[in-house]
Amino acid sequence: MQNLGVQKVIVNEESLLVKEREMRQTFSRDEEDHLVGLERNVERLVGYLLEGDSSQVVSIIGMGGIGKTTLARQAFNHGKIKSNFPGLAWVCVSQQFERKCVWQTILQQLWPECDVSKMMEGELLEKIIRVLETEKALIVIDDIWREGDWDLIKHVFLPRKGLKVLLTSRNDEVALHADKQCVPFKPECLTSEESWDLFQRIAFPIKDTAEFKIEEDMKEIGMEMMKHCGGLPLAIKVLGALLGKEYSLHEWKRIRENIKAPTVRASGSDDRNFNLKVYGVLYLSFEELPAYLKQCFLYLASFPEDYKIDVEKLSYYWAAEGMDFDGASIREVADGYIEELVKRNMVISKRDVDTSRFETLQLHDMMREVCLRKAEEENFVQTIDTMANSESPCKSRRLAVVRLPEETFNVDTEVKNPSLRTLLFIKNGELKTRSLFFTRHQLMRVLDLSFAKFEGGKVPSSIGKLIHLR
């Protein structure tokens, strides 16, 4: 981003432990726009969950982008579910997680008055079991990947009447491992008619009539491009949002020619050719972004999978990188950028109920794959998220330390790049740092020490040498 003299020194906010524990939870919103082909599936799924004598575990299985989380969200927020289950909890597991965080999130939602911040695993386990013994509950475990992951968290799900567990996963073996009597639910890709219906709702939103009018030539081109979406709702929404911003036949033809299948890391469980076509659509959605939005979008590669990104903090990061304000406030500009990304279906957002301002952002797994791929291609940011991943020297000018639980992190020994401009600490667990001496990183412009714990409790005096902090 261009340096435009934006003012902000250090983003250093006091952390709220419980709030941070919730940051890996996916959204369970009460509303979902553009539901096509889901109505019957929602009712069937709700029926399975309400069957008292059936299996304790119900699973939604399918490839990425098919709408597993959307379907689970609709069931979770269904009136019949809310009236039947006094206890409701939603937690995302994903590929990297900590059992303690998962149990904290579950207990916090089942028992909001309970302070979970200082509880150890044994106490969390005891209290969750106690709550589940006294009330009917539905617990959604979203995006669980491996059988071993279930084994780590299963101790709270003792067999008992009144408890239902809803799993979403790409791996059907996970559900069967959790419960041999599991009820599997496998959403199908949208039909051609349903795909076109959803596409029109996104590309040509008309509030006053259910009729969508489109030129025959554009329809033919649109239908041709729709084949790349493979009936996946996510890809259809992204394509619809992309084409909805281009109103000429010439532009539609140009986009048709530009849809290509980039080389991406495809899931081993999905058909590779199909996967590449879908990613081609998602990849193009990035390429069609204006330059300033590309920079903002790539910044999201700094955050771990399923992380709920705080918009207030993100806006300060963007500002320090040189976001163009043109007389407006930091939040006004940031909200405008986020609004554009939301309309393009590239990010998932959550708004504050009272102010309607954006509160958090999240990336869908497949869109995050595009973000990571492009960030790697452009050497935009490097992340250190495990002990084995700290392969310095860091060639990027941006570094995000994402996950080093119970480990000491020393900037001078771990980071060799004297040209480092941005250093962010983004935690899941406790982060300890032995020392942070910045004598070799005097070009630093963006620095977030929110989760850094200094030896002796004192900030190193060498931080005063960072005269370029924004």
How is the secondary structure organized here?
Elements: H1 17-21, H2 39-50, E1 57-61, H3 68-76, H4 79-84, E2 87-92, H5 99-110, H6 121-134, E3 137-142, H7 147-153, E4 163-169, H8 172-178, E5 183-185, H9 192-203, H10 216-226, H11 233-244, H12 249-258, H13 272-287, H14 291-299, E6 309-310, H15 311-321, H16 330-343, E7 348-351, E8 358-362, H17 365-377, E9 382-384, E10 398-401, H18 411-414, E11 422-425, E12 446-448
Parallel strand pairs: 1-4, 1-5, 2-3, 3-4, 9-10, 10-11, 11-12
Antiparallel strand pairs: 6-8, 7-8
Helix pairs in contact: 2-3, 5-6, 7-8, 9-11, 10-12, 11-13, 13-17, 15-16
GO molecular function: ADP binding
Keywords: Plant defense, Repeat
Pfam family, one: NB-ARC
Task: Describe what you observe in this structure.
The structure is a single chain. This protein is an alpha/beta fold. The protein has three domains: 148 residues, P-loop containing nucleotide triphosphate hydrolases (Rossmann fold, 3-Layer(aba) Sandwich); 96 residues, no CATH class; 86 residues, Winged helix-like DNA-binding domain superfamily/Winged helix DNA-binding domain (Arc Repressor Mutant, subunit A, Orthogonal Bundle), CATH 1.10.10.10. 39% of the residues lie in helices and 11% in strands. The chain is built from 18 helices and twelve strands. The strands form three sheets. It has a five-stranded parallel sheet, with helices on both faces. It has a four-stranded parallel sheet with strand order 9-10-11-12, with helices on one face. Strands 6-8-7 form a three-stranded antiparallel sheet. Strand 10, helix 18 and strand 11 form a beta-alpha-beta unit. Helix 13 packs across helix 17 and helix 15 crosses helix 16. Pfam families: NB-ARC, WHD_DRP. GO terms for molecular function: ADP binding.
